[in-house]
């Protein structure tokens, strides 16, 4: 039996600075750049969980709540919310900080799904996720129930 891990043990925090080459004509961070950073943070969280290489198989939700401006600092926090036999779902939350004022705002929230791969590139089992807090248990059960609905 593969030993499980808690969501907190999968937590990854990344910090990035929005530079001019990462923005559109309005001075806002390109959506594709944010998705790229979220994909990396999500993959690292999943790799921390299973200690294997992973690949992205789905972006189930990606909300753009607020633009991120050039010169702002983006912090991405990724943490697993569900595991299946070979797949893992990770919630990624991005916040932007205005470095001149210190003001922060949640800019993006996403759910990505990754699958673990063995040395030959085949899907391989992952450890179970062991939710601890009420919020972690609720996130996990929300995914279990969503999975049941899709399978009907």
What is the general shape? globular
- Unreliable residue runs: none
Mean pLDDT reading: 95
Q: What does the largest sheet look like?
A: 5 strands, antiparallel
Question: What does this entry look like structurally?
Answer:
Helix content is 25%, strand content 36%. Strand 4 and strand 5 form a beta hairpin. The mean pLDDT is 95. It has helices at residues 31-50, 134-151; strands spanning 12-17, 53-64, 73-83, 87-97, 104-117.
Task: Describe the structure concisely.
The protein is built from two helices and five strands.
Secondary-structure topology with pairs:
Elements: E1 12-17, H1 31-50, E2 53-64, E3 73-83, E4 87-97, E5 104-117, H2 134-151
Antiparallel strand pairs: 1-3, 2-5, 3-4, 4-5
Considering the chains and any ligands shown, give keywords for the structure.
single chain; 152 residues; alpha+beta; five-stranded antiparallel β-sheet; 5 strands; globular
């Amino acid at each position: 039996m593969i030993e499980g891990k808690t969501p907190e043990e999968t937590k990854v925090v990344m910090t990035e600075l929005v530079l001019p080459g990462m923005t559109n004509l309005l001075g806002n961070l390109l959506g594709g750049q944010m998705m790229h950073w979220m994909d990396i943070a999500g993959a690292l969280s999943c790799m921390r969980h299973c200690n294997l290489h992973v690949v992205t198989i789905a972006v189930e939700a990606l909300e753009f709540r607020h633009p991120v401006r050039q010169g702002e600092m983006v912090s991405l926090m990724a943490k697993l919310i569900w595991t299946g036999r070979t797949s893992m779902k990770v919630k990624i939350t991005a916040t932007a900080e205005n470095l001149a004022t210190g003001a922060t705002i949640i800019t993006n929230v996403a759910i990505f799904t990754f699958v673990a791969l063995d040395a030959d590139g085949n899907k391989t089992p992952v450890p179970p996720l062991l939710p601890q807090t009420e919020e972690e248990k609720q996130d996990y059960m929300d995914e279990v129930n969503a999975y049941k609905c899709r399978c009907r």
